[in-house]
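User: Hi! I have a protein structure encoded as tokens and I'd like to know what sequence might fold into it. I'm fairly new to this, so please keep things simple.
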């Protein structure tokens, strides 16, 4: 029987072999361009000092330049007062600060948080106030274009250390809510171990960071605090041991800022008292060893790009600030590469020193009067 064919009304098309799939034909969205490192992060050694914002934020930048620094640390507001409202920085001031900093190629910019903040407090009112104050610190740091925001963990009072660490973690999380970090990194600073302060042990700092692993965080290690807490960074063997402990508890790659301070207190004294570089219990020889150690460097392969040593040393006499910065450059073996300091410049002028001295005498007399009055009433 002959097979019948029925018309379909559709023109028959010859079968064409489909081309082989070429992955290059597939649409691919372009990847986000990698964020370029800031101009100051060029592998060079970074040394700074805490400079004053008195009069203007711009003054802090000019002081750092005149003192021979290529990095700096500042407060974003008064460190010993609760700020009324949110104490925001006017955008015109913040923009001028960012522009001038770019011109001077200063970096990193480290901001130290208010000393009154206690993220470990179990007192609900103080904890709430601390969270709000730290949130405001984050907002001001972002406005100024800061790279790092350093904060002390706080004091635990009667709480167990485990509970205190949990409180600190929750406090930081609450403070950083609704704050787009935009390159800002929070650094938890180790402590000397005074009273019930959290963070004298490196393991405590490490546990806080572990609890905050979803946030941009790291650690700031203070040499005077390490020494007072019992870490022997003075001897060669002790420094090697301490580096091993830092690696184990925190990871040295998570320490972008080191507060370079000598100590008036001996090893394990658990009191926070800073001294001029090379003049304290740690000493010049130990600082040379620390500053020249490849693991503490600011370039690869063993160092960390952009790591900075920042002095928080006292200024007892005009020029102490400039001399401490110069000492760090010299002990690092980089005196000839240091930015040129302005001869004779100091944040402490003779007139300011006289005024401070007079104010201290007034405060001393006032205190004596209060004590006498209290004794009479008693």
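Assistant: Happy to help. Inverse folding works backwards from shape to sequence: for each of the 378 positions I chose a residue that suits the local structure. Here it is:
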């Amino acid at each position: 029987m002959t097979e019948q064919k029925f018309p379909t009304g559709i023109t028959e098309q010859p079968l064409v072999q489909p081309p082989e799939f070429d992955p290059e034909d597939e649409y691919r969205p372009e990847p986000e361009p990698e964020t370029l490192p800031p101009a100051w992060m060029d592998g060079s050694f970074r040394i700074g000092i805490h400079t004053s914002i008195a009069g203007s934020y711009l003054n802090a930048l000019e002081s750092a330049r005149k003192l021979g620094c290529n990095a700096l640390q500042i407060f974003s507001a008064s460190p010993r007062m609760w700020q009324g409202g949110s104490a925001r920085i006017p955008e015109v001031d913040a923009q001028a600060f960012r522009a001038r900093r770019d011109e001077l190629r200063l970096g990193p910019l480290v901001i130290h948080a208010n000393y009154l903040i206690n993220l470990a407090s179990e007192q609900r009112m103080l904890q709430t106030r601390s969270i709000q104050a730290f949130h405001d610190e984050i907002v001001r740091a972002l406005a100024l274009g800061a790279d790092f925001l350093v904060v002390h963990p706080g004091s635990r009072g009667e709480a167990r250390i485990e509970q205190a660490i949990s409180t600190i973690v929750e406090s930081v999380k609450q403070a950083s809510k609704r704050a787009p970090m935009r390159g800002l990194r929070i650094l938890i600073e180790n402590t000397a171990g005074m009273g019930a302060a959290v963070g004298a042990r490196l393991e405590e700092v490490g546990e806080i960071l572990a609890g905050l692993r979803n946030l941009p965080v790291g650690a700031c290690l203070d040499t005077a605090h390490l020494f007072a807490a019992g870490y022997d960074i003075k001897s060669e063997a002790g420094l090697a041991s301490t580096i091993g402990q830092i690696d184990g508890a925190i990871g040295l790659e998570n320490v972008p800022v080191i507060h370079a301070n000598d100590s008036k207190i001996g090893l394990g004294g658990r009191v926070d008292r800073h001294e001029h570089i090379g003049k304290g219990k740690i000493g010049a020889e130990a600082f040379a060893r620390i500053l020249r150690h490849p693991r503490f460097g600011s370039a690869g392969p063993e160092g960390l790009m952009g790591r900075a040593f920042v002095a928080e040393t006292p200024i007892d006499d005009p020029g102490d600030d400039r001399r401490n910065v110069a000492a760090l450059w010299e002990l690092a073996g980089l005196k000839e590469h240091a930015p040129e300091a302005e001869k004779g410049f100091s944040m402490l002028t003779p007139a300011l020193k006289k005024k401070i001295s007079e104010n201290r005498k007034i405060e001393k007399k006032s205190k004596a009067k209060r004590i006498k009055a209290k004794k009479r009433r008693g």
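A useful reference point when you look it over: The longest helix spans residues 350-377. Feel free to ask if any position seems puzzling.
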